[in-house]
Amino acid sequence: MGLYLIGIGGTGAKCVEAVSKIAAVGLFNEEPIKVLFVDADETNGNLARARTSISIYKNL
């Protein structure tokens, strides 16, 4: 199946960043995580940090 994570706005991006870090330590080993950003503020640093965390997690 999989885990779907929807981040809405800047706070949602922060939540996605947190989940990616939790996944990196092994909490979500069984299922793939699919991420969707909704109403993401491109100029906000939260989105960039979340994307960076996701890319680091993918490379583990």
Describe the structure in your own words.
- The protein has one domain.
- The longest helix is centred in the first third of the chain and has 16 residues, at 9-24.
- Helix 1 runs parallel beside helix 2 (45-58).
- The chain contains 2 helices and 2 strands; from the N terminus they run E-H-E-H.
- It is of the alpha+beta class and 60 residues long.
Question: What structural keywords apply?
Answer:
60 residues, alpha+beta, globular
Strand order of the largest sheet: 1-2
Class per helix and strand makeup: alpha+beta
Compute the average pLDDT: 90
How many separate helices?
Answer: 2
Secondary-structure element pattern, one letter each: EHEH
Shape: globular
Give the number of DSSP strands: 2
Distance between the termini: 21 Å
Q: What fraction, in percent, of the residue positions are helical?
A: 40-55%
Strand content: 15-25%
Number of domain units: 1
Uncertain segments of ≥5 residues (pLDDT<50)?
Answer: none
Tell me about the largest β-sheet. Answer: 2 strands, parallel
- Subunit organisation of the chains: single chain
Radius of gyration: 11 Å
Short description:
This protein is α+β, with helices and mostly antiparallel strands. The chain has helices spanning 9-24, 45-58; strands spanning 3-8, 33-38. The chain has a two-stranded parallel ribbon.
Write the layout of secondary structure elements.
Elements: E1 3-8, H1 9-24, E2 33-38, H2 45-58
Parallel strand pairs: 1-2
Helix pairs in contact: 1-2
